[in-house]
Structures are given as C-alpha cells and as structure tokens.
Amino acid sequence: MLSKHSMARCRFERLRACTVAATFTALIVALYNQSPLPALDRWPIAEARNDAGQPGVRGQDPTFSLNMHDATPLFLVHPRDSERGSAPACASLRQVARSDLVHVTGSTLLYADATAGLTSIDVSNPASPRAQSRVPWVGTPIAMFVQSTTLWLLYVDADGRHGQPGLATVIDVLDISNPAYPRLVATHVRPHAAHAAKVIGDVLYVLRPGHTTETSIVETFAIRDHAFGSIGSYPLAGAPAALAASSAGLAAATTVANSTLLSWFDLSVERLGSLTLRGTTRVPGAVASWTPSDSNLIDADDGQRVRLVACSSAACAPHDASWLHIVDFSDACPECSSIHYRLNEHGGLPVALFADGVVYVADRSSLDEPSAAATTLRSIATDATLPLPDHCSTTLRGTTFSLVSSGNTLLASGTVLGPSRQRLLAFEFFDIHEPLRPHRTSSFTVGSDWTWTPAMDDTSAIAFKRASLLASVAFTSFRFSDRRYTTGAYLMSFAAPAAKAITEIPTRDWVERATFVNDYLITLGPQHVESHLIKDHEPKTDRRSPTVAPYN
Q: Taking the complete model, does pTM exceed 0.85, yes or no?
C-alpha cells in the first residue's frame, strides 16, 4: 500500500502537471480567440524531415501540436476544446498507445506484413476490399503504433538491407494524414534486435541491447524542431527483457545472471521525451531472452507500481519455478515494500495476463509429455498489500500459449494432441465479471492433423468484435490424408449461455490476420485480402465465393 506521504506526493505531482497543462492551454486558447490566426483545424501538425534533410509537411488534422524549444512541453489542443474554452484532460497528454499490426482508420485498413511491407487497403465497401498502395520492406515486425496522423513501425532486418551487419532494428515513421497513401517521413536504423517498444503521448520508447551483451539502452524518439529523430538514450545494466508503460512513467526490466533489475523512469512534463530515473530494484529470477515482446509478463500502473512474472533462472527451463514480483516505486524504499510471490515449483515461465488489478496465470501442472500435459489457470489479485490467495484454480487442456481478454470475457488458447497424435488448437472461454472467480463458459478443439496459428507468437492476432460477441483467429492446417495445407480463419462466438466454435472459413492463400470491419470478416495475408460476410449478429459466413483482392 502507498504511504500517506507517497500518496500526497503523487497527488501533488499530478496536480502540478495538470495545472501547468491547463494554464498553458488556456493561454493558447486566449491568444487564439483574440488574434486573426487561421483556424486550428487548418494548421499542419508539424514539418518533418527525412534522413536526407528534405522537409515535408505532415498533412492536415483537426488535432494540432506545438513543437517548441527543448524547455517547452508539447500539448495537444482540439478545436472543440478551444470552442468550449476548456483545457484537455491530463490523460490526453500521456495516452499509452497499443501496438497492433492491423489498424483501421476511417475507410482504410493498414496492415504490416513481414514480406509484403505496409499495405493500405480500401474497406469503404468491406464486401470488396481493394489494395490501394504499399510501402515495401522486408523484416520481422516488432510493433506498429498509430497516434493521430503518425505511424511508427519497427521491424528487425536480418539481411543487412539497411547497411547494418548482423541483426538491426529499423524504425520507420510514416505520415498517414492520407491513409490511402502512407508517406515515409524518416527511417532510423539501430544495431541488434530491439526487444520491446512503447508509445506514450507523442514519444516512442525503444528497449534494445547496448554495446555489450550485458547492457541495455532505452532510446526515445519524437518530433522536435520540425524533425523526427532520437532525442535521448539511457543506458541500463543487464540484458534487455521487457518494457511496460503507463501515463505516469516507464518501467524497464533487464536481466543480470539469474536476477532481474526493475527500473522506473518518470516522464518529464517540461521537456518532451525526457526521462528521469527514479530508481532501480533487483528482484530474484529472470525473464528468458527468447520471450516475445508482447508476452504480457510485465505491467505498470499510474501509481508507479510494477508487476513482473519471472522464472527462477534465466534459462526458464521446465523444472524452474516462477515468481510474481510487485515493486512500488512511489514508496521511499521500493526494496523494503517489494512483494515476491511464488507461483509454482516447476513448469518454467508461465503465460500471464495483467488486467484490472488481477493477474491470470496459466502454467504447466506436470512435466509429462504433451499428450498428458495440462495447464492450470489461476487468478491472483495484485492491487493489495499482499497477493490474495488463489480464488480460482482450474485445469486447461493441453499447453496454453496465450491469454487474452475482451470486456468480461477471457480466452485461453493452447495446443492439444488428439487421439491419433494430431496437433489441434484448444480454445476455452471464461466469464470474468468476477475477475477473481473466472467461470468457464465453453471449451472446444479445432484443427486437422497439424494446426498452427499466428496467435502462438502474437496475441493481437486474435480479433474480437465485442458488439456481436465474436472472435476470430487465422490458422494453417496440414492434412496427412492428401498431404495438403489448408488456410483460413476460425470464427467463434462467446455469447451466453455457452460459447462455441461456429465455423471454419477457408481462404485461397496463406493468412496471417483476421479482423472485423462492420458485418464482414477480413482475412489478410502477404499476397491477398479476402472478405467474408457475417449477418444479423449471428456468425454466419457468406455461402458465395469470398471476394479476393490480390496486392499486385
């Protein structure tokens, strides 16, 4: 729990930040109302320059930002706010963006693919999607963020296409003021593969390896002085492991031997992108270097509390134990108030999901072969002085690879071996109206002799349409009988009283993503996009041949 002194200090710092923001915005509004300047909705967001130093106007948008000198903060003002004479909410200054390789803006869908690059697709008529343009690149996508008319795209270049020997991280910044034709504004290349990235407000934070294998760097990027570029880097001890963000700050996890260093950075109100290291705490156990950046093993909140799920050793071997660590950096002595809670005795690194003060943990309950393996799902409170005892412990089939939530629904996805040792996909839906007591609503398996889904590597590959209580995920199956691959998407309903698999939607080519646009399910792959009709809030596919639009 926060001490009275710490809580008062947090409230004072937030009040001061909001007061500065409100005062500055009120001054801008007053000057605007008294001067013959053009309307805010006609002001360009900023001018950006590419690596060659060539300027380019970043387009028009109803939100306008001021790029001032280093000592002046960046604020966002919306025309409707100026008309009302009110200041924007403090949260709008530090909104944490969500990474997703699929983004729909207006009637345009943007999709980042490892081989096809960034493709812009017209979905104004979702029954007949049409590829409009493409920004080509080849690499492994790490993250894609969209804030207003700016798109940040990070991917790993393993072929030296950008002149960097070995692995390199490429950071592309694109102007999507006209999303039909995204325009590359700047490209930055950094050595090694970045491990995680976050966007808070208008600033991109990247956690990547340092100059040695035992160091890390947190580097910040933003538009400043009319150009996009690096505005600071902060070295850390230990190999990069994970990154978490909140409107209050940034938490970085790095590993040293079999321990983890948790560092908290405060965000500066006065200086755009500036970070101030509040403190670093060492906790036992480590996060494996192979852990994907979206593994949901770390969480940070506005109260400067950091939660981390880690193994007892950096190897994260099946016999290793796992721990939940909670560190409160608002406390005068974070080490003194830290909580270390053992999750299991063995099983290695579990699958975790932090949501609404609860962590859902799925870990192996036995070390047997996969055919006999089972996963235990537990929910543990993380917002109390000590984690509460498990309120729910239930067994999942097979080996769980992801936990994802949408509203009051939790979906556990995993793999299970069938009677003839086929590898099938297992999906289990839970009602989490009571977060500490998840209630299973349905469980089923789908697939052929061997089945794989991109959701094994990226949880954002699972799409939800909450209004219709639908979920979808792309898949690829192999049939031993005719030795052929089949691709498509599974369409699932989690409507009460019981969720159930609805149908398998086949596609003509490899599928990486499935997403909902109005009453249609759009499936996306490197070479094509397909549209499938869903009617009357009932998951019912169009019996006609799907509409296929090649990229070329």
A: no
